[in-house]
Design brief:
The chain is α/β, with parallel strands linked by helices. It is built from 15 helices and 13 strands. The chain has a 7-stranded parallel beta sheet with strand order 3-2-1-4-5-6-7, sandwiched between helices. β1, α2 and β2 form a beta-alpha-beta unit. α2 runs parallel beside α3 and α4 packs across α5. It is globular.
């Protein structure tokens, strides 16, 4: 075949539309990385349907990224006695029936789940209908939904290097890293004080919010503090009117603030990989009540590699946190070491690797 013939075939191949169903969500930790995957799939001429749990953040992101969106009922399994578990059992059944018909009518060529309770009925329905399934795990311990999906998927993509996982089928595991959004090339106007970014993820973190609030006066005397607190604590925190203090319940400019921060205080969920991508020195305070204790497991990896300062809620006071913040902010060598070590957990090709393996 001559060159012209090959070019025609390549152009025809580019016109082929691949139907991909993506799922996962409930919180920004699942929904936001999904958007990075969706944007890359679009570049590969994919027809995408995003199925979520109907949360505000999912709908907002789906609208911003111009992707078709459907919501299903989804139940959450609580590892303690709660009457909501009985109600959610029926929600899961209804969600499975909804998923079955969504897949039947959309008939995707591939299904990609980012994990989370909303992904489980989709994965099970896709498996029954013979659709190839791919899943992604953010944490160093597989979440319950992904564990229940493991024997039904073709591949499991993981955010941490494979050595940190145990008892996973070797033929299915691919290290990709965690999908990271692209930040706007924009600078947020701020004063000359170095910036500290405080975040608890899309849902906020009450312990971090309360601990930081108690030392805002001392912090804002030396630093600019940008605080993303979540909706539940926004009202009472907004009564603080200290200079050099910016408060948000949620902001789509998170990565812009992250890029300018000198130090970040956060939990140890998916935010870790954004810290890694931007090589940010961090104080990590894992959520002790997280499912499977996955935040503690993530934090231990960083602690072992000296990639972050890891503090536990038990015994941590505002005064001790303030002392550690000052120590880090005044020690440029420590900042450099922390930034270099956390940077090793970033994989800039994560999104492309995931999409390449989905479309193979």
């Amino acid at each position: 075949m001559n060159y012209k013939g090959r070019r025609i075939m390549e152009k025809e191949k580019e016109k082929i539309i691949r139907k991909i169903l993506v799922t996962g969500g409930g919180t920004g930790g699942h929904a936001v990385p999904l958007m990075a995957v969706i944007d890359e799939l679009k570049k590969n001429n994919a027809d995408i349907l995003y199925v979520g749990s109907g949360t505000e953040i999912e709908r907002k992101l789906a609208s911003e990224h111009k992707v078709k969106y459907k919501a299903i009922l989804s139940g959450k399994y609580r590892r303690y006695f709660d009457w909501q578990n009985f109600i959610d059992f029926f929600k899961i059944i209804i969600g499975f029936i909804q998923s079955f018909f969504i897949i039947l009518f959309f008939w995707p060529e591939r299904v990609f789940s980012k994990g989370g309770y909303v992904g489980l009925p989709i994965v099970w329905a896709a498996w029954l209908l013979g659709r190839p399934i791919y899943i992604h795990e953010t944490d160093s311990i597989l979440g319950l939904a992904n564990r229940l999906s493991l024997n039904k998927c073709k591949k499991v993509f993981v955010s941490w290097p494979v050595k940190y996982y145990h008892n996973l089928p070797v033929d299915k595991v691919i290290y990709t890293g965690n999908p990271i959004r692209s930040a706007e090339k924009k600078v947020i106007a701020c004063d000359k004080k170095p910036m500290i970014l405080v975040t608890g993820g899309s849902q906020g973190a009450r312990f971090i919010n309360q601990t930081v609030a108690a030392i805002l006066k001392q912090l804002t005397e030396k630093y600019q503090v940008v605080h993303i607190c979540g909706k539940l604590d926004y009202e009472w925190l907004s009564k603080n009117n200290w200079p050099n203090y910016k408060l948000f319940d949620y902001t789509d400019k998170f990565l812009i603030y992250l890029s300018q921060a000198r130090l970040v205080i956060s939990r140890s969920g998916g935010t870790i990989f954004e810290l890694a991508a931007y090589k940010k020195p961090a104080i990590i305070i894992p959520l002790p009540s997280a499912a499977n204790n996955h935040q503690e497991a993530n934090a231990r990896i960083l602690e072992k590699e000296n990639a972050a300062i890891v503090l536990r809620e038990k015994g941590l006071t505002s005064e001790s946190l303030l002392e550690i913040i000052h120590r880090v902010m005044e020690d440029k060598d420590m900042q450099y070491d922390l930034s270099e070590r956390i940077g090793q957990f970033a994989n800039p090709d994560a999104v492309k690797t995931i999409v390449k393996n989905i479309l193979v």
